[in-house]
Write a structure and sequence with these properties.
The complex is a heterodimer of chains A (715) and B (84). By secondary structure, chain A is of the alpha/beta class. In chain A, 44% of the residues are buried. Chain A is elongated and about 90 Å long. In chain A, a hairpin with a 5-residue loop joins strand 4 and strand 5. Helix content of chain A is 60%, strand content 9%. In chain A, strands 3-4-5-2-6-7-9 form a seven-stranded mixed β-sheet, sandwiched between helices. Chain B is built from two helices and seven strands. The chains are: A alpha/beta (715), B alpha+beta (84). Chains A and B meet through helix 3, helix 10, helix 11, helix 16 and strand 14 of A and helix 1 and strand 6 of B.
Chain lengths: 715, 84
């Protein structure tokens, strides 16, 4: 099999394109991190929602290697979006990401299954290096892999590495510079399966190998790279339509042939020397972590810990960030000349920026946990023990973490749905997570609950206020589950959903991976979602600080004419002016114009304004209420509450914020999509405005109808 | 070891029981299972059943694979009986 090899040589190329491909859990990302370090970025594969991680490293002073980390895949069958990306990049020589060299990463401790993908890539006849990862595990298990033999049998260069310990990474870089054998012989004789068709296809399209032709035959409907060459496309279509093809049979024949050869190779190249240790460690740990009592107890504790951390621990850095922005705002107010531009900068852009940066601590903490859970192999067990429960609602075992994190904040929670591989289950999780009551709703809840329930009132042992608060969280959860159940029935699956999933052996987490994951997520959030959040923030600023004609000016004039009164009254006058300005602003006009629509919910135009402004973030409701009721100090919820309590409904003469109005508002805030940051993140994660739009309207409709029901029943 | 010819589906095995994969009853599912290393002739062992009875975890080709019961039931196996 050593016959007539041809070689390619890349040592004199200035930029060498290298693709990394491999099974999920094979350590491909670890290798990618080890190769590129901080020189990496996340972009987009054109036309699809799959993230593209790329990075570079210097091989010599003249040669730079550019790595593209292709999505993990078990095979080259383009059935899912991830697989299609890997397939198109490798099979289509005209793809912008088509590599000069492909590094196939294989988990050496699980060689048989990993060789399947390796064998398919070899048959594409493109320059390949096999990086045999986790050699440390193989050694620990007491196995020996004959790397030289394996290399001969496969006809490609093989480098044994341990990406976690950074062993062999330098050797792999060197291997890129050495002459590379281009695979010459067929791993399997694909012509045995479909010879005539392959010949016909190779007549029409220039392909590297028979296997590439076979892939065109068998996956034509999934291939998009002929879309620009319509003549070829029609010809291929003609050939394929003329023959009756049993695609399933072709593919299963191919798979069986491959495993026949793989079994022989594995037998020749691996020597088992002793009993397996890591597997039995994993086995023991699984007995506890998937136990019917301990398993759930441990998972609940993990959830509780994560929740506590992002809810309470993140509050400190979030406070620091907020006070930092207060300092920045004060500084800007004093040192910038007063005027429209400064106003835009301070109240539009800086305020928007503050609203973006404030999420960073929660994102860091949540992704630290998620990276650790993924990296250790525990996340797969969470799926395993939660699958049956979550499946009923169209969710995935892995949806539990986003849902629970949603109680702290939907923004990082939605970003964490990436670990859900089924498209449908992931979309459902993204759509329903914002129904969980997040921490930004808490100030709104607290204010409104304090209006309806006295602090010391109890029902049995329970504090009345606490009970209402708990019910709101429960209602949010029930709404999320119900919405998921409904969507499961409405949404059509894009691809067949399997639960066929590897349970990887347990390993200690790598801090490097954790750190790089966090960095990646923070960057994505700041740059992708951040743009949208700042844009909306500027719009909201404009709406609440500008009015048609010269109304603002006349209000200012009115208040500046008599400027003799001092001190305490000054504050009150200032507050009264702000209140009048807000009423006159576009936001105020908007609030008034929606009054007829929200009147059946018990809301007046004042609440209407708050609904508009709190789209920036729900807690803005409290600040807007403070401004409208000219409560002076915005942070003093006591005085806002007193002012709201004193407000009288002019029609009835009774308190405006009655039981019915407060409960109606509470329900409205529990359900409505009042958060531009969440919408921006949903867009970032689905890369389609359709989903945030649907979410906005379905949650809005739910909020409206529920509030309507509550108000009409209670009033 | 002795092969018993009566075929069962994989989800009917007891925990710890091994069997040899015989064939598949669902063509499309078979393709996915094949690429995951579940090939006819391969030895599988039912390693674990999730606490709620579903999914299950099997050892196959030297690794641990979890799949739902309805997915496992498309794999026909002949159980291996260990004789002392």
């Amino acid at each position: 099999m050593e016959s007539n090899k041809s070689f390619v040589h890349f040592s004199d190329v200035s930029t060498l394109k290298v693709a990394l491909v491999g099974n999920p859990n094979c350590g491909k990302s670890t290798l990618f991190n080890a190769l590129t370090g901080l020189h990496q970025k996340t972009g987009n594969f054109p036309g699809v929602t799959v993230d593209k991680k790329s990075g570079y490293t210097k091989l010599t002073s003249n040669t730079t290697a550019e790595f593209v980390d292709l999505p993990g895949t078990y095979s080259l069958y383009p059935k899912s979006i991830d697989e299609r990306v890997a397939f198109e990049v490798l099979c289509n020589p005209n793809n912008p990401d088509h590599p000069a060299v492909t590094i196939v990463v294989a988990d050496a401790s699980n060689l048989k299954r990993n060789l399947f993908l390796v064998s398919q890539i070899i048959d594409l006849k493109i320059p390949v290096i096999l990086a045999l990862n986790m050699m440390d595990l193989v050694e620990k298990e007491g196995d020996v892999i004959d790397v030289v033999r394996l290399s001969e049998r496969l006809g490609v260069k093989v480098v044994g590495i341990s990406a976690r310990n950074k062993e062999g990474v330098e050797a792999l870089k060197l291997a890129l510079l050495e002459p590379l054998p281009v695979p010459q012989y067929d791993f399997i004789d694909i012509k045995k399966i479909a010879s005539e068709l392959i010949d016909k296809i190779t007549d029409v399209v220039k392909v590297n190998s028979d296997f590439a032709a076979f892939q065109i035959i068998n996956n034509f409907s999934e291939i998009h790279y002929f879309d620009t060459e319509s003549d070829k496309k029609t010809k291929i279509k003609g050939i394929l339509n003329a023959t009756k093809i049993d695609h399933n049979k072709l593919q299963s024949q191919e798979s069986l042939e491959r495993y026949k050869v793989i079994n022989r190779i594995v037998e020749e190249c691996i020597t088992h020397q002793s009993a397996i240790k890591t597997i039995s460690f994993t086995h023991k740990l699984d007995s506890i972590l998937t136990h019917r009592i301990f398993g759930y107890a441990i998972f609940l504790s993990v959830l509780f810990f994560i929740f506590q951390t992002i809810f309470f621990l993140a509050a400190y850095p979030m406070e620091w960030i907020e006070s930092l922005f207060v300092i920045l705002t004060n500084w800007a107010e004093h040192s910038l000349p007063a005027g429209e531009l400064s106003n835009l900068l301070i109240n539009g852009i800086i305020a928007g920026l503050s609203g973006v940066v404030v999420f960073v601590p929660q994102i860091i903490l949540l992704f630290a946990f998620i990276a650790i859970l993924e990296d250790t192999g525990y996340m797969a067990r969470v799926s395993f023990i939660m699958d049956k429960l979550m499946r009923r609602y169209g969710l995935n075992g892995r949806s539990v973490i986003p849902l629970i994190s949603g109680v702290a904040c939907a923004v990082p929670a939605i970003m964490s749905t990436r670990t859900i591989s089924s498209w449908k289950e992931r979309i459902i999780t993204v759509m329903v997570t914002p129904l969980m009551s997040c921490s930004a709703r808490l100030p709104v809840y607290t204010l409104l609950i304090s209006l309806v329930a006295p602090v010391d009132k109890t029902i049995g042992f329970f504090n009345y206020q606490g009970l209402i608060l708990m019910s709101l969280y429960l209602i949010g959860f029930l709404a999320a589950i119900t919405a998921a159940w409904v969507m499961k029935r409405i949404l059509k699956a894009r691809e067949k959903s399997y639960f066929i999933m590897e349970l990887p052996v347990y390993r200690s987490p790598q801090w490097r991976t954790v750190g790089l994951t966090i960095l990646d997520k923070v960057k994505l959030f700041l740059f992708d979602a951040g743009k949208i959040i700042i844009a909306i923030s500027v719009i909201l600023w404009f709406l609440s600080s500008h009015a048609p004609d010269d109304r603002m000016e006349s209000i200012e004039k009115k208040y500046s004419n008599s400027n003799t009164i001092k001190n305490t009254d000054d504050v009150a006058r200032e507050a009264k002016m702000s209140s009048e300005k807000l009423e006159a602003s576009y936001a105020g006009i908007l609030g008034k114009s929606i009054e007829p629509a929200i009147a059946p919910l018990g809301f007046d135009w004042k609440i209407g304004i708050s609904l508009v402004t709190s789209f920036a973030a729900r807690e803005v409701f409290v600040g807007t209420m403070a401004t409208i009721y000219s409560a002076g100090n915005k942070d003093n919820s006591q005085s806002i509450r007193d002012k709201m309590r004193a407000e009288v409904n002019p029609k009835t003469g009774l308190p405006k914020f009655s039981m019915a109005v407060c409960f109606s508002l509470l329900i409205f805030y529990a359900f409505a999509m009042q958060c531009m940051s969440t919408l921006a993140v949903v867009y970032r994660e689905t890369k389609n405005w359709k989903w945030p739009t649907i979410q906005f309207f379905f949650m809005g409709a739910l909020a409206y109808l529920s509030s309507l029901l509550v108000y009409q029943l209670l009033k | 070891m002795n092969k018993v010819n009566a075929l069962k589906n994989l989800s009917q095995l007891k925990i710890g029981q091994s069997a040899i994969i015989d064939s598949f009853t669902d063509e499309v599912m078979a393709l996915k299972l094949l690429e995951m290393g579940c090939t006819p002739g391969e030895v599988v062992k039912l390693d674990r059943i999730a606490p709620m009875g579903d999914p299950i975890a099997i050892s196959v080709s030297g690794y641990l694979l979890s799949l739902r019961k309805d997915e496992a039931s498309t794999i026909l196996v002949s159980p291996i009986v260990v004789k002392n």
